[in-house]
Write a structure and sequence with these properties.
204 residues, mainly alpha, 0% strand, disordered N terminus, UPF0750_membrane, YitT family protein, cell membrane, membrane
């Protein structure tokens, strides 16, 4: 079933495809910068980055596997079509995150600038994915499921997860890198909070 944004915009399959390709490419490229700087972010992407730092496993594969358990929650709450869209986006991010470092390398990035640019690019990518009825799965879906079961607002669950994730990161990464990472995460959330509003998204 299409969500309200899709119905309002009348997105075709081609529209959705380009939206997903743009969104996942932006997010994956931003993650290349983030990993080059040795920073981390929130949600399942942050968890996958930390695991890849500690183990040396490829981020793309870790991100893909970390998301697998959440598809059941997505199916129960949002249906098969949403699960399929989420699976496609996660698979694209995983593939792009491994492909892009073979195509581009950064000689120098100021960490503060890189963190802010990561936030802006990731926010733009997520907006494209959201507006075409997709998601990147993970903690957001589990938080919604938990909200239905307990009444605890999804935003609080996501915030708690990120707080624990950054606390763990503080034991793994130097403190300045954790602080730069927080800047990037704040920018992502600001971009989404300001721009992801149905009353401001008008199809022309």
């Amino acid at each position: 079933m299409q969500n309200e944004d899709q119905k309002a915009a009348g997105h075709s399959l081609l529209d959705d495809a380009q939206g997903y390709l743009f969104g996942t490419a932006m997010c994956a490229f931003a993650l290349v910068m983030l990993r080059t700087l040795g920073l981390v972010t929130g949600q399942t992407a942050g968890l996958a980055i930390l695991i890849s730092y500690v183990t040396g496993w490829p981020f793309g594969w870790v991100f893909f596997v970390v998301n697998l358990p959440f598809y059941w929650f997505a199916y129960r709450r949002m249906g098969r079509a949403f699960v399929m869209r989420t699976f496609v986006n996660v698979a694209l991010i995983s593939a792009f995150a491994e492909l892009f470092p073979t195509l581009v390398a950064f000689e120098r990035i100021d960490p503060l600038f890189g963190a802010v640019l990561f936030g802006l690019m990731t926010g733009a990518g997520l907006l494209a994915i959201f507006r075409h009825g997709g998601s990147l799965g993970g903690i957001g879906i589990l938080a919604l499921y938990f909200q239905d079961a307990t009444g605890v607002k999804a935003g609080y669950s996501q915030l708690a997860f990120d707080a624990v994730l950054f606390a763990i990161a503080a034991f793994i990464l130097p403190l300045p890198l954790v602080l730069y990472s927080l800047v990037g995460a704040v920018v992502v959330n600001l971009v989404i909070a300001i721009n992801h509003r149905r009353d401001r998204y008008i199809a022309m």
